[in-house]
Amino acid sequence: MVLRRITGLVYLIGISTALSAYTVFWLWYFFVFYILQIPIAGYLRYDGYALIVAAALFYDYLRHQATLRTAILSAQQTWQPRVAVRQTGTALIFLFTFLVIAKDIAISRVFLASFCGALFGTLLLVNRYLPRLLSEWVFKRTATFRVLLVTSFQIQPRVVRWIEKRSNYGFRIIGVLADTYESHIGGYEVVGKIKDLEKLLSQKACNLVMLNGASDDTQMIRRYQRICDEYGARLVIAFTFGQSYRRPVSLWQEEGVEMMSLREEPLECPSNLAMKRALDISVALIAAILVIPPLALAVWIAQRFQSPGPLFFLQERTGLNGGTFFVWKFRTMHVDNPDPARQATKADPRVYPMGRWLRRTSLDELPQFFNVLIGQMSVVGPRPHLAAHDKQFAKIYHAYRIRALVKPGITGFAQVRGFRGETVEERDIIKRTRSDLFYLEHWSLWMDLVIIGRTILQMVRTPNTAK
Fold first, then answer.
1. What are phi and psi of 141, to 5 degrees?
2. For the residues 422-445, what does the mean pLDDT come to?
3. Which of these, 10, 4, 2, 117, lies nearest to 61 by C-alpha position?
4. What are phi and psi for residue 185, nearest 5 degrees?
5. Residues pairing with 237 in the sheet
6. Which has fewest Cβ within 10 Å: 92, 136, 148, 251?
7. In this structure, is residue 321 part of a structural domain?
8. 333 plus 413 within the same structural domain
9. Is 452 exposed, middle or buried (0-12, 13-18, 19+ CB in 10 A)?
10. Tens-place pLDDT, residues 324-363
């Protein structure tokens, strides 16, 4: 019900944004031609460009309608400047692509460039105010939901906040039905007992009944449904599984089978995997061609003087779905290392001088871009550990092995948050694992780019946790 309202609203926003861009194009045309009196080409020539701009904005809407729908559903702002920057950039790409294809030398480049500034300002205002104005126009006056909350216990605050945030979409709480002697619950008046539901519906006091929380009493639910159907009211059940299980849940239905999941996994989507893999290959190729060769030469020379032996160090680590692979690193310890599985510590005598610098700056990890190209690792993901350490850490935190549902990474969300280096206490493992799980459940391409950027900054400004 709510999702359908928001979906329709999102379509209206997309069409209105395109029409706004088309309108501003012509307003700017008449401003330049009549107010500034700058001679430009004929009227008909520019009509095609106005349509191109509108098409560009509608195309951008089609690409990002899911994001816009999510933002509206969660009552987030959709007017951030970066959205207007993206939309203006899309319009520019469309305009200049059309220019190249049409080979139009008569069109005013000055006009088009100045129009982009006007378009950016317009989009800032449109993104800021249009969703609210449209929702009030469409829902608030003619399609109001007068919500009656029914509860046998204290109302969940999240349910109340959910309704209050959607006041622009026609939701308004008129009261609470509860078997209690309190006059108010959750800040709203108790207008009767639960047995008074039919009486209130007969008075047309509400048109949406929301049950606060699921119930195992199917007979009761059916009775509520019958009463609501009889008086033309909607019945909605507000599940609070997320609060009960202390984590978000996903509900869906396929072929009559209703299912619930306690964990979102964006990287189970093939298109997301394809985008992540494309980013991995792009970054890994740049590193393998431009960065690793000169660094490998410098490390090899330093090793000849400080710790003769092989340039690289291969070590078996745990990867995707618990499988094993050999990770590549620049060797930072002496060859006669008596205990390669033991974690490095500060001033570890097994580490030669330049090896200590390589570990502190994380440059010893760069050969792992070869693992990325092979497909064993990703640029961003949970750091892979030794199998022995995995067994040890899994005993400390129950959800530790969930990390293996995604490819391990050269860097990760835990590392850029400062959770790296030697694990001295159990809480170190817990903090790292929770960061890795947050990454698994909230992955986005933008998140990967931010983590890569923060990793580069940390290589320049070495954190205290680096060993």
1. -90, -40
2. 87
3. 10
4. -135, 125
5. 211
6. 251
7. yes
8. yes
9. middle
10. 999 999 998 888 766 666 666 666 778 888 888 888 888 8
Among residues 16, 5, 295, the alpha carbon closest in space to that of 133 is found at: 16
Q: How are beta strands 250-254 and 257-261 bridged, if at all?
A: antiparallel
Nearest CA to 73 out of 147, 210, 169, 145 is that of 169
- Residue 174 within a domain: yes
Q: How far is CA 188 from CA 212, 228, 235, in A?
A: 14, 22, 20
Same domain, 217 and 258: yes
Structure tokens that stand for 362 in this block? 């994380």
- What span, in angstroms and rounded, lies between the C-alpha atoms of 330 and 313? 6
Residue 31 DSSP code: I
Asked whether residue 290 carries a pLDDT value surpassing 90, the answer given is yes
**Does residue 136 share a domain with residue 172?**
no
What are the pLDDT digits (tens) for 382-401?
Answer: 999 988 888 889 999 888 99
Tell which residue, 21, 121, 4, 137, has the closest CA to residue 72: 4
Give tens-digit pLDDT for 156-189: 677 777 777 777 667 788 888 888 777 787 778 8
Q: Are residues 164 and 208 in the same domain?
A: yes
Spatial contact of 206 and 191, defined as CB atoms under 8 Å apart: no
**Domain ranges, residue 107:** 2-140
User: Can you read off the two tokens belonging to residue 438?
Assistant: 């947050």
Instruction: Evaluate whether 123 touches 13 at the Cβ level (below 8 Å).
Output: no
- Dihedral Cα 253, 256, 262, 263, nearest 10 deg: -50
Return d(Cα 393, Cα 399) in angstroms, integer.
10
For residue 148, give every residue at least 6 positions away whose Cβ sits within 8 Å of its Cβ, in sequence order, or none.
173, 174, 175, 176, 177, 191, 197, 200, 205, 206, 208, 209, 210
- The CA–CA distances, whole Å, from 426 to 344, 352, 396, 435, 453 equal 17, 28, 7, 15, 29
Helices and strands per DSSP (H, E), number in the chain: 16, 12
**DSSP track, 284-311:** HHHIIIIIHHHHHHHHHHHHHHHS-S-S
Give a yes or no: residue 80 inside a domain. Answer: yes
DSSP state of 152: S
